[in-house]
Amino acid sequence: MNIRYEYNPAFESLKPSFEAIRTIFAQDDHSIHKARNELKIIDIQGIKTVVKSFKVPHVINRIVYSNFRHSKAYKSYHNALRLRELDISTPQPIALIEFFESGLLADSYFISEYFEYDFTIRTPLLEPLSDREAIFTAFAAYTYELHQKGVWHLDYSPGNILIKRTDSGYQFSIVDINRMEFREITPIQGCENFNKLWASNEELEIMGREYARLSGLDESLAIREMKRHNDANKRVKNFKKRLKKAMKGDFSALS
Length: 255
What we know:
Blueprint: E1 2-7, H1 15-19, H2 21-27, E2 31-34, E3 38-44, E4 47-54, H3 59-67, H4 72-85, E5 93-101, E6 104-113, E7 119-120, H5 122-126, H6 132-148, E8 151-153, E9 161-166, E10 169-174, E11 180-182, H7 187-190, H8 201-215, H9 219-247
Antiparallel strand pairs: 1-5, 2-3, 3-4, 4-6, 5-6, 7-9, 8-11, 9-10
């Protein structure tokens, strides 16, 4: 068993915990998400952290991640460093830890400081908050700022956009950042990045007006593009759900 890790020099004192992260993670029961990967809020030497444990990949990906591509933990850590260099809010990265067995990647971890937030963008999308229009307007401006800085979040979905109310408005912070691109983004391309929100037409109109105002796009064009990408994403997701049910024997799902 070999271990490889990188860490933020500001957290040098936590180095023994990085080497023991497997045991620390297994013994902690503060899980906040468990699917393919698992996230836990863990106090490490008095620092409130979020530890993300990435599932052991299948054998082909173990070979790929060990020899040809960086692991998801590696990309999460280095994307966080890049975002903070660009003055974009994401939880402070602390460390990435990778374990290797027989020369192949086994489990891996990404540790960040816990970000105190009030809710995610999912809340105003689902609940009648009194300031929801202001939130959507601010969110469109935040997204435009990301695009101006060349940041394209490939999983820009409701649960990955954290919001904290502040005296001056709202602070947004993005998580689940292992899948990102850093490139030039035109305003018309930027309209696609709203497609995973499952927002209503009314909500997209609010976002579209602000995005168009800031980017110089024609307002009707921006709103139309956002709706088009949103509808396309919904069709794909719904088809996959029906196909999954059909594969389980529920052929009525395809009718």
